[in-house]
């Protein structure tokens, strides 16, 4: 219909207006509610998005609408509401539960309740030891609790299942770095950069490691690469200030430090 065409061509306001008009006439159109939820989500109007997905579930018993309602609450930082929606989604079947447990863990992680997050991630892995999302979540939780050996263990398990996810290489690198295993950290950050060349974080991290081992030229090279992606002036300036200070060029170090401040 016309509203869907507007949605597909990213004419969001026109699509919303038409869906709302259709729903005024017939409020039992599940697809219209679902599509409206997607449009509000794209606008970052997460309350309206969650409300629309809720109606999609009510009028059409749409399980995916429950999941999307949870996602809208999560993005809107209404985390307990998200948890409730994810739990409702989990009750619809085994596959849904596998997905929901990880999302619930992420909610508790965002709430800084790391023990509760671990509980849900561990339940997910007990149901399916190949659940990469849960392994990644446990890796993050262990990093938060300074359990670096465990974080590396979980990162390795996730990487063995799918070595193409850059974030898991970064988690392993962070664990190794905190254990002063610089060679492992360096190789993992380089792998993350290879997999996700648009991420600035691995490049800056590699630069920092080269600072630690005294290779200032390589540090500058990686900082320069990182600055091409992330142009946050204070971060770049601080990295340069540290490097030039280590190189003994205190004039440039001072200039960059002033820029950072």
Rg, nearest Å: 23 Å
**Uncertain segments:** none
Average pLDDT across residues? 92
E-strand count: 0
What portion of residues belong to β-strands?
Answer: under 5%
What's the overall geometry? Answer: globular
Give the ordered list of helices and strands. Answer: HHHHHHHHHHHHHHHH
> N-to-C terminal Cα separation, in Å?
55 Å
| Share of helix, binned | over 70%
What is the number of helices?
A: 16
Estimated structural class: mainly alpha
Query: Which sheet architecture does the biggest sheet show?
Result: none
Explain the overall architecture:
The protein is 81% helix and 0% strand. The chain is built from 16 helices and no strands.
Task: Label this structure with key terms.
81% helix, single chain, 261 residues, globular, mainly alpha
Can you describe this structure in just a few lines?
This protein is an all-alpha fold and 261 residues long. It has 16 helices and no strands.
Strand and helix layout:
Elements: H1 2-8, H2 12-25, H3 30-42, H4 46-60, H5 63-75, H6 79-90, H7 94-110, H8 114-127, H9 132-144, H10 148-161, H11 166-178, H12 182-195, H13 201-212, H14 216-229, H15 233-247, H16 250-260
